[in-house]
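Posting for a labmate who doesn't have an account.
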Amino acid sequence: MLDFFGRFHPVFVHLPIGILLLACICILLSFKARFVNLKHSVPIMLFLGALSAVASCITGYLLANGGDYDGKLVDTHQWMGISVAIVSLILLAIYKKVKSNGVLGTIAIVLVALISITGHLGGSLTHGSDYLTAPLKSDGPKGAAIPAIANVQEAFVYQNAIQPLLKSRCYSCHGSEKQKGKLRLDEEAYILKGGEDGNALVKGKAEESELIKRILLPLNDEDHMAPKEKPQLTNNEIELLKWWINNGADFKKKFKDLPQPATLKPVLASLEKGENTNEAVKSSDIPTEEVGAVDNSVLKKFTDAGIAVIPVSQHTNYLSANFVNAQLMGKDMLALIKSIKKQLIWLKLENKYVNDQTLAAVKDCSHLSRLSLNYTAVTDAGLTELKDLDQLQSLSLVGTKVTVRGINQLKKLQKLKYLYIYQTGISKTDLANIKRLLTKVSLDTGNYQVPLLAQDTTVVKAP
């Protein structure tokens, strides 16, 4: 309850600012004969201003103890606010007793100065310590979160791209001076530590990282990051963050040290030019035709079953679903999949309970472009259900019992680009037949071996 009452601080804090400033102006004006009648209104203004200043101090103290703020700035703001309340009470107590205009004028000017400084510190806590000077800085085109990187391949991913992005879009709420949800994103240790809701990121798994989940929430969702009244991350910036996390969220490596898929090339090009595109640029595997949103009650059923269902992008209703943690895949679960068949375009069914019957629910997902069936009980018979998914671009069958007979049923999938068949029933001799059948498909057979270089070592030495 104390934390709840602390949230009223922004409500109370504007009253002493307005009322006390008006009281001080009336005091100074009343020294002139033509405004002498203003003296009669000053006591009531001082009373209301002092009362609201005390209420602001109490609620501000409770808010600061909530743990969302840190550092010396909070203490300075707090003591300046207390000073405003004390000086306003003193002025209220002596106003009718002191006849010296000099004394009253001096106290009024001091009070104005205290209110101004306290207000500025409050603004710094809310919007960042540089909120006044930020518009004067020139770090690239207007609104660009990441300054231009001349040679992006030689640049450090975190230092030159991720950190400036977080600073521009996240530090005002999750920096050294303010930590909403007890989350700080301004240093490596704090990023890895996470906040009160757990880990902000899961290395290698962007879709399971709370940071990405919050960014991809609908704009009107109260948990959406950044808040809707603040600058939003562009699609390129989101893709950059997801790529960084999927590649281990390393804080030391350069761009050239990490694998770079084709989808990252336009992001790298924009980094070199320092461009900031605020338009919602669709990914190549997101349909241009928009669909309606799924009802929240349906999404809650997925969450209750341990299934992660999130938007694939900030500006679309299309969804990505991950069934890795699902405990059952019965009729109820298949019905749930069918309930989002229009919105579902990325589906990860890497679960031991998934079998050929499961794919009977998937066949109606006409917009599906990515499907992962790794280490499931799916067989050639089940692949028959996929033959009409004409939007499917990526299919992963790693660790299944699928053979070349099952792959032959996919020949109608004209948009299929990537097929992952490591540890399947497909032999080396079958690959030639598959390549002739699926001429435009990139086959990934896994089992890669990285050659040793002369400067490499396989000797493990104790620290």
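Reply:
Got it, the structure tokens are right above this. The two ends are 51 Å apart (CA to CA).
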